Input
Amino acid sequence: MYLLMTRPRAASERFVAQLPTRTRTRVQVIYSPIMEIRPLPVAVETEGVQGLIFTSANAVNAAVLKGVDRNLPAFCVGPTTTSTAKGCGWQAEMVGATAEELVGHLLKRRPKSPLLHLRGENTRGNVAGRLTESGLTVRELPVYQQLLLPLTSEATRVADLDSPVITPLFSPRTARHFADIWTGSAPLWLAAISQATADPLYSLDYARLKIAKKPTPKKMRKAVKKLVKHALRVEGGAVPD
Output
């Protein structure tokens, strides 16, 4: 049984390291990033800015490279982005598990503005536009790009075997790309971090698709654990407690 990790290598390794030991010992991990994160050559001006919005850890890392003022408060989506921002020195606060929750929280709280949303070239939710239309001035600046990659030769080989391939997917864009490039015949067991991420996967011929109960790494690890248990049952193997 294989666990196919399609996130950038460092993020994939962190996710795998935090899986339960019993789950890790029952899969062979294949690392095949289908997206590469690259900082954009832009300058970040924060004069007059009252706070930052981070909706991904990638934006935090790009902000570090660009020397963005760490004395500014940072409003973040999700525990990973929040902990990354805190670890880099920002006074970071998690204000939602999704961009939708972040928008709702900030509109209710009305912090000092303008705020600056540092994001990737490809993003969802129109955070800055929606907040500004509702009276909370937010500027936005793409600080990194997400380049799509093909599956590695190792992943392509595994895709044509008979063993189950468990694949967690963490964004609608990577899910769409995965659906486009997957041509394997192996039994495919999918975990999606959200319904929006699951939607592009319905076109695939999969054995099972599980959507995380919440869009967090913890719930995704739980979803992968359950998929491994179900796949073991199908194969007739022992099922971990």
The first helix runs from residue 9 to 17. The mean pLDDT is 93. The radius of gyration is 19 Å. The first strand starts at residue 2 and ends at 5.
